[in-house]
């Protein structure tokens, strides 16, 4: 049985699903390695026990709420609206923006991956040189909250100062639960997979999510790259490579996924940590995994599909971040991957659903789905389509991405306007999270 290392024990009830695979001979002990957003995950053939499925995963970001001043440790943070529209937050963001160089502004549009255990000197230097404004802790760490806090504090030392104002980094990770839990060890709970969480009452999930968020906050994180709002039909189940295969979905109906992603996000909000609804407009209807497969296509989802309900509900409840999928949705935009699609980001997410928060990409650094594009093209097309923050789990791709954005700015006035709007949204999020100091 998994140990909780001092934190409240969270029992893991059996997953309510018929797994189509069987365990035979050597396959019972062989661990199948796969990757989610650059992080290796391991899963026993046949699914394994609930405890085995509650293994490790990705990187998430936890955003401590407050306005323009960093909240004291342990303080209860106020609710942070998705649009980050509080006057003090936007005024703070405007003040900092006015004093920034172009390089500093562009850097705010990137989130670079660093190892959760010990970030390399090279990666940290890259983040500093290119003024990268946000960081994702990647890989796996069993060091616990205290050791992770030391890592985070070291990463934060890379932050810029603009006109006397500290422009703090947003630090995130993937802490969904199950096989997607980057941080573990003393002070961190063993979080069950989302399908198990979906079998709980929403009150139970909200309470436990608040506990998990508090652990991330204690480790110094601002943002969690969760919850997964994708609806995987029961008929597809584990054949859905990115989500169902790893039991990352909260259920098989829009109603269950909506209620439980809402409960998860509410618990995090109470603890002062921000969440990310992903992977818009949903990865529930695909077979391939965009991290490991090219040409992943959803030929089912439309702009009126019921599977969009979890995202709509999250936006109405002030979701601060929404992550965009790198699959193609032929009934929404047959020409572009969602990450590069104005129809998905501007028309559907911002227009129809009214989202005013930060639009973040799925990994554009090493995902196979985007390998046909150069790093510069990935960044330029995402921002050009309406995206705000480029996530790359490979910090080594940052220089080419930044240079591509700056080159596009030099020749395209419309693109410059989009960059300015995105930088303001990111800075407003930081101000609302207490990562800007003004006054």
TrEMBL record:
Spell out the PROSITE patterns in the cross-references: GLYCOSYL_HYDROL_F3
Q: Which InterPro entries match?
A: GH (IPR017853), Glyco_hydro_3_AS (IPR019800), Glyco_hydro_3_N (IPR001764), Glyco_hydro_3_N_sf (IPR036962), NagZ_Beta-hexosaminidase (IPR050226)
Q: Which PANTHER family match?
A: BETA-HEXOSAMINIDASE, BETA-HEXOSAMINIDASE-RELATED
* Enzyme Commission (EC) number: 3.2.1.52
Q: Which residues form a coiled coil?
A: none
Q: Which family does it belong to?
A: Belongs to the glycosyl hydrolase 3 family.
This protein's record includes keyword Hydrolase: yes
The protein's GO terms of the molecular function aspect are: beta-N-acetylhexosaminidase activity
User: Which protein, by its recorded name, is this?
Assistant: beta-N-acetylhexosaminidase
Record-annotated Glycoside hydrolase family 3 N-terminal domain positions = 104-428
Q: Which organism is the protein's source? A: Streptomyces fuscichromogenes
Tell me the keywords, alphabetical order. Glycosidase, Hydrolase
Q: Which SUPFAM superfamilies match?
A: (Trans)glycosidases
The record's catalysed reaction(s) read: Hydrolysis of terminal non-reducing N-acetyl-D-hexosamine residues in N-acetyl-beta-D-hexosaminides
Entry keyword annotation includes tRNA-binding: no
Class in the EC hierarchy, top level: hydrolase
Q: Name one GO biological process term.
A: carbohydrate metabolic process
């Amino acid at each position: 049985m998994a140990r909780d290392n001092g934190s409240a024990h969270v029992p893991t009830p059996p997953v309510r699903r018929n797994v189509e695979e069987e365990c035979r001979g050597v396959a019972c002990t062989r661990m199948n390695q796969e990757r989610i957003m650059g992080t290796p995950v391991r899963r026993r053939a046949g699914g394994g026990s609930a405890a085995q499925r509650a293994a490790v995963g990705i990187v998430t970001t936890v955003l401590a709420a407050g306005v323009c001043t960093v909240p004291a440790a342990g303080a209860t943070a106020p609710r942070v609206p998705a649009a980050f529209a509080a006057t003090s937050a936007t005024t703070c963001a405007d003040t900092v923006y006015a004093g920034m160089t172009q390089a500093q502004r562009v850097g705010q549009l990137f989130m670079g991956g660093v190892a959760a255990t010990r970030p390399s000197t090279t990666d940290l230097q890259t983040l500093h040189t290119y003024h990268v404004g946000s960081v994702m802790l990647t890989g796996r760490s069993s060091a616990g909250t205290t050791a992770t806090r030391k890592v985070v504090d070291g990463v934060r030392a890379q932050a810029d100062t603009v006109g006397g104002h500290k422009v703090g980094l947003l630090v995130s990770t993937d802490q969904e639960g199950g096989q997607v839990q980057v941080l573990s060890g003393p002070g961190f709970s063993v979080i069950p997979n989302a399908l198990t969480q979906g079998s709980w009452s929403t009150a139970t999930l909200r309470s436990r999510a608040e506990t998990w968020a508090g652990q991330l906050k204690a480790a110094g994180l601002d943002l969690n790259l969760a919850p997964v709002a994708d609806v995987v039909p029961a008929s597809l189940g584990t054949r859905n490579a990115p989500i169902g295969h790893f039991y990352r979905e909260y259920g098989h109906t829009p109603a269950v996924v909506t209620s439980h992603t809402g409960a998860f996000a509410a618990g995090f909000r109470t603890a002062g940590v921000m969440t990310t609804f992903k992977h818009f407009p949903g990865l529930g209807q695909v077979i391939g995994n965009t991290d490991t497969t090219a040409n992943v296509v959803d030929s089912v989802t439309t702009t009126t599909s019921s599977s969009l309900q979890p995202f709509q509900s999250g936006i109405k409840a002030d979701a601060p971040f929404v992550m965009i999928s790198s699959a193609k949705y032929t009934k929404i935009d047959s020409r572009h991957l969602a990450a590069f699609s104005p129809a998905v980001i501007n028309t559907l997410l911002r227009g129809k659903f009214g989202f005013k928060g930060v639009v973040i990409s799925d990994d554009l650094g090493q995902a196979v789905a985007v390998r046909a594009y150069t790093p510069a093209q990935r960044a330029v097309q995402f921002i050009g389509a309406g995206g705000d923050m480029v996530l790359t789990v490979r910090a080594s791709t940052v220089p080419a991405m930044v240079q591509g954005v700056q080159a596009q700015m030099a020749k395209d006035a419309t693109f410059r306007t989009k960059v300015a709007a995105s930088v303001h949204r990111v800075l407003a999020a930081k101000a609302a999270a207490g990562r800007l100091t003004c006054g």
